[in-house]
Write a structure and sequence with these properties.
The chain has helices at residues 6-15, 29-44, 95-98, 129-139, 146-159, 170-181, 186-194, 199-209, 227-233, 245-248, 280-286, 304-323, and strands spanning 2-3, 18-22, 48-51, 79-83, 104-108, 119-122, 213-215, 220-225, 255-261, 267-273, 290-291, 295-300. It is an alpha/beta fold. It folds into two domains: 2-194, inorganic pyrophosphatase (n-terminal core), CATH 3.90.1640; 199-323, Diaminopimelate Epimerase, Chain A, domain 1 (Roll). The strands form two sheets. Strands 1-6-5-4-2-3 form a six-stranded parallel beta sheet, covered by helices on one side. It has a six-stranded mixed beta sheet with strand order 7-8-9-10-12-11, sandwiched between helices. Helix 1 (6-15) packs across helix 4 (129-139), helix 2 (29-44) packs antiparallel against helix 5 (146-159) and helix 4 (129-139) runs antiparallel to helix 5. The longest helix has 20 residues, at 304-323. Bound molecules: manganese (II) ion. Residues 30, 84, 109, 128-129, 159 line the site of manganese (II) ion.
Length: 330
Amino acid sequence: MQLLTCQTSAERLRAARTVLIGGHLRPDGDCLGAMAALGLGLRALGSSVTILMPEPIPSRYRFLAHHFLPTAPIDPPDLIVILDTADPQRIALPHSLHRSGAPLLVIDHHVAGAHEADFLWCDPSYGAAAAMVCDLLDFLACPLSPAIAEAIYTGILTDTGCFTYPNADERIFALALRLVRQGLDTARIARDVYQSVPLAATRLLAAMLATLESHDEGRIAIMHITLEMLHTTGATQADTEDLINVARAIDSVLIAALVTEQPDGRVRLSLRSKDPLINVGLLAHQLGGGGHLCASGATLHEPLASVLARLPTLLRSFLAESLTPLPTRK
Ligand SMILES: [Mn+2]
């Protein structure tokens, strides 16, 4: 694997005539926004681009959905680009493409390593993958069209929790200002993303909230979603994105967990913390998953009931460990 910079990534992209752009499983706003922005930009520069998303696109991002194809063309591209994950387990690509021999360039702002990538540009100092794409397009001298600006803004808005997480730094605000100055309708995007919740998803929220458990004097909140709840409410797996944040928002909570039953019999554990000192990314990594300091997840080959049974103890000891002052800790 060769490590690249923004500049050398841009050179790789410029040299490819046909590019396939992929993202990660359960795509979020940053993944979809970064993919769409890069695809539109490369197309404007004359490349033939497929923006591939075989996974369901959450309804809140339906205004971006027309950029994506659910299946890949038969001919392998000159270059495959994966955005917003370096974790081989999370890459949303069909196996045929994985094995097509096309070189794989991964562009990501998480910390995990990309074992299957030929080229990697990873920079955790970026608040969002969409901001990395913006720098790439600037380097390629590609103007930010209104559609590109919309996609980039969606990425930075959602990955920074509406500019409220620690990754909403000066660079992110400067980028937002640039897009606003260009005439971007940010209120319209916020309405599409945050005020367009399907009724079924709201009914699922109600069912999930009924499962809320509080542990460790309110410092730990655990909720779950069963397949039965999805079935009864008519909501989809994609509707579960972000529901966990309701538990993190509770004043006493330091760690929030959401356990979601998957159709394949596994369960998805999502974790959120309010304090970077409580690094839930580390815990997810120990469980075979990954993520950031304050937002992470893992998929477990274990029945829902057994995860729910051991989770309070697991989280309580992780929290106690995280809060123990170490002499080396700043
Ligand atoms: Mn991201």
